Amino acid sequence: MNDSTTNVGQGTAWLTRKEAAVYLKLGESTLAKLFVSGDGPPAIKIGRSVRYCSEDLNAWMAAKRRKSSSDTGATKEQKPERWPAGNSQRTPEFPQLASSRTKSTTI
Known about the structure:
Blueprint lengths: L5 E3 L3 E5 H8 L3 H10 L6 E3 L2 E5 H10 L31 H8 L5
Antiparallel strand pairs: 1-2, 2-4, 3-4
């Protein structure tokens, strides 16, 4: 087989990292970093080779779809409340930091 894309089972295409990067229109190093961080599309690793299923690439891209740049993709129930109401110092999620900021230290 001359083509590095291998068809397995029901027409599933397995692409190399380079082919997957071209398919997604991403840099190969970007895709590698996403793989290391766990934020990229699912992949399999065999030895030093990494392969991506074309169906997984499509599903990963569909999951990244947003309506605006401020859309995180999380539903209202999933979004954490970063700035609790009534917190005048706007300290996120760490109330112990708010008290340490208001205390003055005397030398």
